Amino acid sequence: MTTKTAVQKMYLAGNWVEAEKTAGVYDPKDNSIIAEVPAATASYMIKAIEEAKEGAKTAAAMPVHQRMKIINRAADYIEENREKYAVTIAREGSKTITEARGETQRCIETLRLSAEEARRINGETIPFDQREGSEDRLGYYYRFPIGIIGAITPFNDPLNLVAHKIGPAIASGNAIIVKPATVTPLSALLLAEAFDVAGLPEKVLTVITGSGREIGDVLVTHPDVRMISFTGGLETGEEITHKAGLKKISMELGSNSPVLVLNDADMEHAVESTVSGAFSAAGQNCIGVQRVYIEEDSYETFTSMFVEQTKQIKMGDKLLDLTDMGPMITEKEAKRVEEWVNEAVEKGATLLAGGHRNGAYFEPTVLTDVPDDCTIARQEVFGPVVLLYSVADLEEAITKANDADYGLHAGIFTSDIEVAFEAITRLNVGGLMINDSSDYRIDGMPFGGVKGSGLGREGVKFSIQEMTEPKVVSFKLKHRKIV
């Protein structure tokens, strides 16, 4: 006797619909199927875009108070059903139930911020008389929604990162089509459920499931989609940029974040913060700690403490409160990390902790003496591996931290305010966390990077700026007296 897996419908322009084919959603801990979702084809995406053209008009016409009420009602619904959301995040992804509850709370806060920022989409008056001959003109600019936004989201924060696209889009009067990660679509569909219950008008929101190869290109290249908001890997981001054509692009493309630990740092705090920053969500975090540069006088002490705390991390069942770290998203990804670690060891790196794989589970791993030509030293590992380096001083630490194709977040631990400001000036990143690991973030701050880490900024207020355009209005007054 076989048990039929539940089929979750997708949310197409305000309606829950099925498709001819389905795709399985699997729990990475044992690869067991937990649900099936529609495997949409290009025709479904085209329909979603056509419907969104009407939805964009509806969204733009919604008064601000209505947008705010709908977003807050959606947040209320998630708050009332928070355990349902947390369990879904934990089951379909890599997060433990504790981490999933934290993400659920962040999603609620992201939506509340979106509702608040809807009332602050302001313009400014413009002094046209700054130009000689324009004394008879008055005017201003205001921001208007750009229309249809296409959003492509990753697996590692399957609820909150979707909220970071839907919340600001609705707050700013746009229609939005979300293509969630193929492996974690259920959380995004639950977010659509919250907006459906909240009374969002039809055609404003679509959450469409399916293969990126099947439906992604349609979303990216369609001329009626005026902005692509993408969170994911550098290679895919570059492909999207080449395909998208003339439209706005916002991209958060990850990093291999550096953290600097100086001799005057609070070592106990630095170790605790960097261990957490390296191994939360099984290391699958775009701002997770990957490279740690420690001043040589503190290197042995820091390394010893770091390895000791790393070995105390409890791997296991994601749904147990006592579990610190779950599996990676797929066994394939765990095998990739295993290959990168083995390559580093073969080239001379020292393995101080971890390094072993069991299915999709990969142990928290600490490497030292990693040669610069190793893959893991240059690329984003996106797994539970951290590299420790000894450096002579701040100068060497900054030079090595900047020697990467990425620049999202960095961290520095020091008691010297002048040293902190030196790092602020010279580290080539989008955000620097002083006496915190690179992993620190709140949902109201601008979030994004430089170099291969992306284009534009997220964070609710800043996403709204990306999702709107300024329009200038000038009045020429016939009878204005010039004093």
UniProtKB/TrEMBL annotation:
It is an enzyme of class 1 (oxidoreductase). Residues 16-473 form the Aldehyde dehydrogenase domain. It holds the Pfam family Aldedh. The keyword Oxidoreductase applies. Its EC number is 1.2.1.97. Keywords: Oxidoreductase. GO terms for molecular function: lactaldehyde dehydrogenase (NAD+) activity. SUPFAM superfamilies: ALDH-like (SSF53720). It comes from the Bacteria. It catalyses: (2S)-3-sulfolactaldehyde + NAD(+) + H2O = (2S)-3-sulfolactate + NADH + 2 H(+). The keyword Membrane does not apply. Belongs to the aldehyde dehydrogenase family. Part of the sulfo-TAL (or sulfo-SFT) pathway, a D-sulfoquinovose degradation pathway that produces sulfolactate (SL). Catalyzes the oxidation of 3-sulfolactaldehyde (SLA) to sulfolactate (SL). This is 3-sulfolactaldehyde dehydrogenase.
